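tool_call: predict_structure(chain=1)
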Amino acid sequence: MTWDKMREARKKEEERLDHESHDIIKSYLDEVYIHRVQYYKTLLDELENLVVEVNRGSPYKWLNDSFGKDLGKYFELRRKNNSILNRTDYDMVMAWVERNELQTATMDSNDSWGYREGSGHKTYPLDGIPEDLMGKMSVLHNVEQETYIPDVGVRVGEGIYYVYKSE
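tool_result:
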């Protein structure tokens, strides 16, 4: 997968997550405004602050209780999505099985997904793969090739995965 394809996959996922959060509040907005929600950042920030204050016990009462609850869900999902989409660390580990062992190498997105000098390869016996790495590979094994999954990685080819490095 090329860097451009990775960028396209991330953009597609960003749009999907954006639609997912907008679906929560679209019934409160007419069609003209739902597609322009991002232009109302100041208003959204104020609404988010109001939701936080109400959840902390502010005496404010919503005129429509379901609207207040849906706004809470919307902002929670928006925060979660932003933390995923605003990642700046694109370092990934390329993982593949060779000679009945898992081979890994750190890849560097700043070098067009080239191998990072000095990081070395790591080899794991198949029964000794770190749990986090195994979990991400398992998720990617069950999707189509070149499918990007936020905070997990991408399945590059048959048995070859780029996964986000664990913290």
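agent: The chain has a mean pLDDT of 78. Proceeding to next step.
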